[in-house]
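Suppose a colleague, Dr. K., hands you the sequence of a protein chain of 82 amino acids and asks what its three-dimensional shape might be. Before reaching for any lab equipment, you can write down a predicted structure in C-alpha cell form. Begin with the sequence itself:
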Amino acid sequence: MRATLRKMGNSQGVIIPKALINQLGFEGEVEMRITETSLVIEKPAKPPREGWEDAYKALAEETPDHEWLDFNNDFDNEDWTW
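The predicted structure, expressed as C-alpha cells, is then:
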C-alpha cells in the first residue's frame, strides 16, 4: 500500500486507514523505530509504567522506613542565626 506524506504543522504525517488500525489493534499510542531502510510502527510491547506498582511495593517491603528519612545536610544540626 502506498500513502502520501502530508504536511501537519511543521511536520509531515501519513494517514493510516481505519481498516489497518483495526486489524493491528492500535489504540491511543504506538511505538516507532527505525531500521536501516524502514520506519516501523507497532503496538507498544507493554503499557507504560506496567509493573511499577509491584516494584514499588517490593522496594517498600525490603527497605526499612528509617532509611528514607536521613536526607539531612552536614550543616542541618548547626545553630542558625537569623
